[in-house]
Write a structure and sequence with these properties.
three-stranded parallel beta sheet, about 325 residues, mainly alpha, 13 helices, globular, two-stranded parallel ribbon
């Protein structure tokens, strides 16, 4: 059995960056890798590493589940579930914490970044976050894990922990491999292209959310930062703003940069931004229509129920094997 696994934290509405860098790619991968099972989960246990409003979190959990389907995932070959509804994730996390070293956790760049932003009230869960992520992956013997640049370090740790356990206790875990999308894996902030598009950024003018009003989406595209050269040319170093917009255009319109450059040669940025605004708006309208179909439907609940039961079967089996090898329990 071959499994592709991924999860998204329900800490807010996913962004255009999440869609182009991950969610949209899952749809293409599912079409391309039809002989694989796709395990997609809402990583709600990861969400509580930082303070959350319970009512908002509960709604965001449903939103993320509905948006997976709205972005085009097919029920066939899909196991969609909530992380917290499969308690083996938390139990396997305890096992991973017994394997991982403090120094390995201290080196995680995401932890260091979040520490810099959140100087007070940092939880132990934020520090041990990668151990839970390793548990998420290794519970299902996932062969592939689609990752962005900011998650690759965590995947490497999961690989190290799988190898460490296998060396100590015998072959138990599949060592996962990463699937990195070369183009669009890191969409930048529309107002500050030196940073990635981030739903937790203080200024949301540079971030497009999948469920925000279409008029607002168009306005953000048209007001995106570019430069004074007024030349539609892909150069991430000299023209990072226009390069970011061209990346979005290229992915959604499925055109190479050379064709985009030729199309807008000598026209400046106005017509380019107008066209891109329409392209993005059209894509978002499709997603939002599908989202409204799923969000409060019996169909979504049925998918999550089925996904939970399917995930539990594999998770229980793997955890029992791990406990036995560790010498836990009475038998």
């Amino acid at each position: 059995m071959n499994i592709v696994l991924s999860g998204v934290k329900p800490t807010g509405i996913p962004t255009l960056g999440n869609y182009l860098g991950a969610l949209r790619n899952f749809v293409k991968l599912q079409e391309k890798m039809s002989d694989y099972e796709f395990f997609i989960f809402v990583a709600d246990l990861h969400a509580i590493t930082t303070p959350q409003d319970p009512k908002i979190l509960r709604q965001n959990i449903k939103n993320v589940a509905a948006l997976y389907m709205a972005c085009g995932m097919k029920p066939e070959g899909l196991t969609l579930f909530l992380q917290s509804e499969v308690h083996e994730h938390a139990e396997m996390s305890a096992v991973m914490q017994s394997l991982v070293y403090m120094g390995e956790l201290e080196r995680m760049t995401q932890y260091k970044d979040k520490m810099a932003k959140q100087t007070a009230g940092v939880t132990a869960a934020l520090f041990t976050y990668p151990a839970l992520m390793a548990a998420d992956i290794l519970l299902y013997d996932a062969k592939y894990v689609p990752v962005g640049e900011d998650q690759n370090q965590h995947l490497e740790l999961a690989r190290d922990l799988a190898i460490r356990f296998n060396n100590r206790f015998g072959n138990t875990f599949t060592v996962p491999e990463g699937l990195v999308q070369e183009k669009g894996a890191r969409i930048k902030d529309l107002q500050d292209p030196s940073k990635k598009m981030d739903k937790s950024a203080e200024n949301d003018k540079g971030c497009i959310f999948l469920l925000e009003p279409i008029a607002s989406i168009k306005k953000k595209i048209k007001s995106a930062v570019t430069d004074n050269e007024a030349n539609v040319h892909y150069d991430p170093d000299k023209q990072p703003g226009i390069a970011n917009l061209m990346t979005i255009y290229s992915i959604l319109a499925e055109l190479p940069f050379s064709e985009i450059e030729a199309k807008y040669q000598g026209q400046g940025y106005g017509s380019f931004k107008d066209d891109l605004a329409e392209i993005v708006a059209k894509e978002m309208e499709i997603i939002q229509d599908r989202y409204r179909r799923y969000i409060n439907s019996d169909e979504l609940d049925a998918l999550l129920d089925q996904g939970r039961e399917r995930a539990r079967v594999l998770a229980q089996r793997k955890l029992a094997k791990v406990y036995h090898k560790l010498g836990l329990g009475r038998q």
